[in-house]
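Newbie here. three chains, one complex. Structure please?
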Amino acid sequence: MTEFLAQHTPTLTHWLYLSTLLFSIGLYGLLTRRNAVGILMAVELMLNSAALNFVVFNRFCAPATVDGQIMAIFVIAAAAAEVVVGMAIFVALYRYRGTVDVNAMDTMKD
Amino acid sequence: MIASASYTVIFYLLAALAVLLSLAVVNAWKLLRAAIALMGVLSMSAGLYVMLDASFLAGVQVLVYVGGIVVLIVFAVMLTRSAELLQDNPAPLRKILGAIASLAFLAATVGVFRSSPFLLSAEKAPLRDNTTLIGEKLLDYGAGGYVLPFEIISLLLLIAIIGGIVVARKTEPQGQPFTTGGDEAGEAEFRPPFTQEEHEDELELVEK
Amino acid sequence: MDQLNLGFALRNAWLIPAIPFCSFAIVGLFIAPMSKKLAGIVATASVFATAALAYAIAWEYFTLFPAGAAHPAIIPFSFEWLRYQPGLSVTAGIYVDPISVLLMVVVTTVSALVHLYSNGYMHGDEGFGRFFTYLNLFTFSMLGLVVAPNIVQMYVCWELVGVSSFLLIGFYYQKPSAVAASKKAFIVTRFADLGFLIGVLILGYQGYSSFPSLQGSIAPELVKYGVTNLQPIDFLYINHPLVLQSLLANGGTIMGVSLLTLAMVLVYSGAAGKSAMFPLHIWLPDAMEGPTPVSALIHAATMVVAGVYLVARLFPSFAASEQALLVVAYVGGFTSLLSAIIGITQDDIKRVLAFSTLSQLGYMMLALGVGTMAHPLGYTASMFHLFTHAFFKALLFLGAGAVIHAVHTNDIWEMGGLRKKMPITHITFLVATLAISGIPPLAGFFSKDEILAAALGNHFNVLFGVALFVAGVTAFYMFRIYFVTFWGPFRSHHPEHAHEAPFTMWFPLAILAVLSVIAGFFPMAEYVSIGEPLEHEGINWAIAGPAIGVAVFGIALAGFFYSGEAKRAATVAAAFGVLYRVVKQKFYVDELYIFVTKSVIFQFVARPIAWFDRHVVDGGVNLSGFVTRRSGANLRHLQTGQVQTYSVWYAGGALFILLVLWAAAMGR
């Protein structure tokens, strides 16, 4: 058992499957959520999985460098900025419209 | 041997938790629960970062993401009363469509991964603490240095902060951006610009 | 003989159409909106300059080829205008031969005088600047037509004069009758021009077919006259005996009519439309709705003779086909007779003059028709009559315009007694009336005499009789309006306030009166002839005697009926009863046209086509519109306005592309 486990340490592909899975789940949330805050959370999931991808490739393809990790830091920073602005927009939106239901936000078709 | 085995076990454990929690993030009816689940996903990710020899990043993840962003989201949920206002339950059709789209994405990406050769590196991670390396890289202005993106991202954050303040500040509604007129601030009932009947009338007029 | 030694005017002959055109553009675009007075001055000055140039050209041309000698056509200026393919292009240029010189002189003279006259006549009119712009446009187009070296340039200018005529007839566009008249003129002449166009196409095609074989034998002899780039549509080519022979030999026949005859009759239909020959004459009397100077310039002196000019220009081709020339002769004679008779009964002074114009145009056509290449006196006579007629008919119209200007009515029965009120107008009008009646020694006598001599000389006895009779009738109806207008009592309150015309108006009258007196002494036969130069004949008193006789008889009859109170005329008119009414209604030709168009063409041709258009053509258009609208209305629902829906589609599309790329990568 232990031997089996030791021989099946996760390879690059497994890590990639994991991040892809997370990304797909985020995509699903992005497409289905009705609440704008929920959508934002789905986006966070996707960003997180992308950052994970960076780190995975860094670890497996160029372990002597840290560029992937730095990219992940940038992703986190961008996500933070995004959340700040997004939240501000939602708060303003809520004040004007009384809702953050994206189904109600269809003025684009007019 | 034991280390490798436990590595494997921990990976699958963390991965399974992350997947389950993220499913909860996208499916939870109550947004507050979703936020908590997101916090969990991000924490699991921090653990995964540790397993990838990126302990500094793990710290950043916990500090910024879990401690900052998720808290902000929770604030937003509270502020917009989304949690109570809205039982977020999407239409079944949309769920199906979304599921198809994301599964197809998953399948396509997995297919690409399976068929693509990756240039794996045989070397192990350097013994040197990569936190130091990250610090040096971030402030390095030579070739391969990240001082410029670093400055730009700091500027971005500054702009985001100011923008957030400006957007969220309570102002007297003048030209209301999302309505065609009449809706006062905080008015609960959203009135669409045209009702469906009006649309039909208009269409008939055009046909005449 | 080497290259001709051209004088200054001939070398710069291109200015003849260019000056009026520039003036038209400048006056129309810049001056007319700014200052009406200046517009009149500039327009008039430009036409006077053109007239001076035309005289210089005439002088130089007849110095180059003196009187009595042969007068070959020269082309002092030309350029390639449209190139269809090597060996077929359309040139534009200046064609100088006796008749084009003649027409240049006539057109510029009358046009200049009419411009001058209009400065007075149109004074204070709202559209003063517009009027002069149109007049300049007309002058340009008419001169372009006159100097056209090929049939395409002539056709283009032909339509341009049609347009300017349309614009000027409809000048008072607030008046429904003027609008109707302008439309009528345009439609009738356009209809006739359809025949012209087909004729042009036949001639052009035949010319093009024979061009390669004949070019070599024709082109070299013309080079010395300035023809460097001979084309199959040039008059010099079409009229060449070799070409006509080849056309007669190879053209074949269509329904028993030779192709040449067919082409010439079709061309003649265009000429008949422009020159208002029966049965296309109906537009000319109505065209009198335009301002009187326009009637004088366009509908008496110049544009309407374009048809005569066209026939004269293609005279060798017409002469090669005898039937075509017979058509010309008999249609001309019939028109002449018919409109002279109608002229007796009309009460509108301008309409009488219009019918008189028709009658005289018929005379010119008749004269052309009785000519042959062997005995071409008719050709000369026709051009001579065109020349003299331009002066006295313009004078008549301008005189009538002066009268109308003074009394503000067109009806001769509301005038009367004007000879004391308007002495200059009276004298000049009398001169013109005597001239048109053919009283020696005024201009009309000589040209009419020549026409009669030409008809009798080629043994057209019936046409001679008709022409003689028409001469008498002409004298009668012209003196009828003369007596009714200028003699007798005031027939209404209008003439009481009449006054003499201002200088700008009576001065052209005086000039034209002088010209009407002396033009007849011009030895036309020595200058304008075709084929072998004519030996100058004196007056043949055997012909001139009866002509003077019928003219005097007509005048006496008119004096008997119409001098004084003119009570006898009414009695006679009543005695004729139905006949009189038929004539007065112009033989009901207009009504016949309306019957044919409304009851036959509209009913049986236009209505089915309209139905087809409304239901099938429009239906198709509406159907496509309906389908578009319906599908749009249905597809509208795809546009939910929700970003998420869009992103689902976006994800689907991106995936699809990804799969395609992947499949492609796998396949490779």
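Moderator note: Residues 26 and 41 of chain A are 8 Å apart (CA to CA). Helices of chain A lie at 2-7, 12-32, 36-61, 67-97. Thread marked as resolved.
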